[in-house]
Amino acid sequence: MLNVQNLTKTFSDTTVVNAIDFTVGEKEIFALLGPSGCGKTTTLRLIAGFEKADHGKIELLGQPIGGKGTHVPPEKRGVGFVFQNYALFPHLSVIQNVAFGLKDLPKAKRMKRAEELLEMVRLQDLQHRSPQAMSGGEQQRVALARSMGPNPKLILLDEPFSSLDPELRESTRLEVHKLLKSVKMSAILVTHDTEEALSFADRIAVMRQGQIEQVGTPEEIYHKPETAFVANFLGQSNIIQGIADGRRVQTQLGQLQIESPAFGQVSVSIRPEHLVMETPNGGCVGTVCKRDFKGSDLTYEIDFNDHRCLVQTNYDCPVQVGQSVEVKAVESAVVVQEQT
Amino acid sequence: MRLPPWYLTFPVFVIGLIMLLPLGYLLLKACSASPAEILTSVINQRNLKLFFNTLLLGVAVVIFSTLIASPMAWLTTNSDLKFKPLFTLAGVLPLAVPGYVTAYTLLSLTGFQGQQVLGVNLPNLSGFLGAWIALTFSTFPYLFLNLRSAMFGVNPALSDSARSLGYSEWETAWHVVFPQLRPAFLAGGLLVFLHVLGDFGVVSLMRYETFSYALFSQYMAAFDRTYAAWLALILIAFTCVLLVLEMRILSKNQYRQVGKMQVQPIVPTPLGNWKWITYPILTSVVFGSVVVPTLTVLFWSSRGFNVSVLTKLAEVILQSASVSIITAILATLIALLITYTSIHYPSTFSDIFERLSYIGYAMPPLAFALAWVFLSLHGFSLIYQTFWLLIVAYVLHFLAEAIGPVRSALLQIPNHLEEAARSLGSSPLAAFLRTTVPLLRNGLIVSFAFVFLATMKELPITSLLSPIGFDTLALRLWSHAEEAMFVEAAPYALVLIVVSLLFVSTILFKESEVA
Question: What domains, with CATH codes, occur in chain B?
Answer without folding.
Answer: 1-32+304-515 (1.10.3720.10), 33-254+273-295 (1.10.3720.10)
